[in-house]
Specification:
Blueprint: H1 7-42, H2 46-74, H3 76-95, H4 100-128, H5 132-164, H6 168-171, H7 173-187, H8 201-224, H9 229-251, H10 265-295, H11 300-306, H12 308-326, H13 330-347, H14 357-383, H15 388-417, H16 429-432, H17 434-453, H18 457-470
Helix pairs in contact: 1-2, 1-4, 1-5, 1-7, 1-10, 2-3, 2-4, 2-8, 2-15, 3-4, 3-7, 5-11, 5-12, 8-9, 8-15, 10-14, 10-15, 10-17, 12-13, 12-14, 13-14, 13-17, 14-15
């Protein structure tokens, strides 16, 4: 595809793909800032607020891999356009939601569009920029857009919520989606994979059932009781679904997830790293928005401005982490990330309503350093040693793990904090968050340990042993040892 595109056309393709990333990433931070306003206007329960976030992340996690294989089969441009259309439609419907249940349902439509956008956009970028240096620059710009959108999201969300109401945070998505659709139609050529993976509807259904059951059980556990029939039944259903998934995927010729990947210690560690890091981050974001506005009575715009250190740290540390990973210092990047997350959590374990804003700004900045440093090594560790034909699927599993962590973070934060944050201006709101931030600090410590374990000699040996298993004997053009993605490579 690159042979038929001029440099200006390639730049237009990159700009269009980055616009989709901007749209999806900004939406996450905007919605978190608007949670207190949504609670007041829709009389939403804490569980309703949790589902307004988790309904989105569960759908994204469930359909990322399916969206990638669908795009490879029917066309990346066609799938990308469908994703933009669904995201815009879901945004418009969300702005009109009369109830919390309707908002959750419309957010799910948004999420389905989001699942069809970002992984497909990355495939388009990779297939457009075939030169290694051009591709590296393009992916670097892509990462920079992530930081910018994280920075703009809280500020824009705060201002829009304060001036026009929470529904306006969804209006802003519609014109951006329309512009992206027009640019896609004009500049992005159609492309397909020469040998697309077959769709796995059974595996896909089992993933959805597992994620929805676990998150539902965690959200409802404190309210209904952990031994209640709905909660216990959800956990049992999740366990049964996992067992069936493993048994079915082992027998399938072209599985949704190749379970042999988990024989690689770096890949398994990358999955856990993604879940831990994004459990910590999403739980933090969820509580932070409610704390600043409900407990401290800050205006939405001020609350958004207070979280700016997170976005600034992301913008600075994401490219720094990429350079460390590219230079073979994967362990250092992971350890720094874990230490920063642990310190960020520790700074908030004695949070009070009267905690100085300067203290919060420092804690938020340190936390942002952790998140900025962890993203690049997660993807790198996931694809370390994988044959290039399998690297895309391995990266998709890492992205799915991020969304799983985001779902669990919101569910756990609300459940652990419990009754202390169930109502606005609860007198013990700050104290109720302390166990959550202890958990965040503990997750940072585990990330540090995984940083050492995933880059040690045993991990490297597991990668060498896995390589031959993933190469199909006699397959034409099968990956050689030189084609494997080396440990520590960007």
């Amino acid at each position: 595809m690159n042979n038929y595109l001029s440099p200006s056309r390639r730049r237009a393709v990159l700009a269009t793909c980055c616009l989709s990333l901007f749209l999806v990433t900004m939406d996450v931070t905007i919605v978190n800032v608007a949670l207190p306003a949504i609670r007041r206007d829709l009389h939403a329960s804490l569980g309703g607020l949790q589902w307004s976030i988790d309904g989105y992340t569960i759908v994204v996690a469930s359909f990322l891999t399916l969206a990638g294989s669908t795009a490879d089969r029917i066309g990346r441009k066609r799938t990308f356009l469908a994703g933009l259309g669904l995201f815009g439609l879901g945004s418009l419907l969300s702005s009109l939601a009369p109830t919390t249940a309707a908002l959750v349902a419309f957010r799910a439509i948004q999420a389905l569009g989001g699942a069809m956008m970002n992984p497909v956009a990355m495939s388009i970028i990779v297939n457009t920029f075939t030169d290694a240096r051009e591709r590296a620059r393009a992916i670097g710009i892509w990462g920079g857009v992530f930081g910018v959108s994280m920075a703009i999201g809280p500020l824009m969300g705060g201002v829009l919520t304060e001036r026009l109401g929470w529904r306006s945070i969804f209006w802003v998505n519609v014109p951006i989606a329309i512009a992206a659709i027009a640019l896609t139609a004009k500049f992005i050529p159609e492309s397909r994979a020469p040998r697309p993976r077959r769709i796995d509807p059974v595996g896909q259904a089992l993933v959805i059932v597992t994620l929805a059951s676990v998150v539902s059980a965690v959200i409802d556990g404190r309210r209904l009781g952990w031994s209640s029939l709905p909660v216990a039944g959800s956990f049992v259903l999740a366990a049964v679904s996992i067992a069936f998934f493993v048994a079915y995927e082992r027998r399938r010729e072209d599985p949704l997830v190749d379970l042999r990947f988990f024989r690689s210690i770096p890949f398994s560690c990358a999955t856990v790293l993604a879940i831990l890091a994004f459990t910590a981050f999403s739980g933090f974001l969820f509580l932070n928005s409610l704390y600043l506005q409900d407990a401290r009575s800050l205006r939405p715009s001020v609350a958004g401005l207070t979280t700016l250190p997170i976005a600034l740290a992301l913008m600075i540390c994401s490219p720094l982490s990429g350079r460390l990973v590219g230079g073979g210092h994967v362990r250092l990047a992971i350890v720094v990330a874990g230490v920063a997350i642990a310190i960020g959590g520790a700074l908030l374990v004695r949070l009070e309503v009267t905690t100085p804003l300067a203290w919060l700004v420092v804690a938020y900045g340190v936390f942002g350093i952790g998140l900025g440093m962890i993203n690049a090594p997660i993807t790198n560790t996931a694809v370390s040693g994988m044959p290039r034909a399998q690297a895309g699927l391995a990266a998709a599993v890492a992205s799915t793990s991020r969304q799983i962590g985001a779902s669990l973070g919101v569910a756990l934060a609300g459940t652990i904090a419990g009754a202390g944050i169930h109502s606005a201006h609860a007198p013990n709101f700050a104290a109720a968050t302390h166990p959550v931030f202890w958990l965040v600090a503990a997750e940072g410590v585990v990330i540090v340990a995984l940083g050492f374990y995933s880059t040690g000699r045993r991990a490297e040996a597991s990668v060498r042993m896995l390589g031959p298993l993933l190469r199909e004997p006699g397959a034409e053009g099968g990956p050689s040892e030189r084609e494997a993605v080396a440990v520590g490579a960007p």
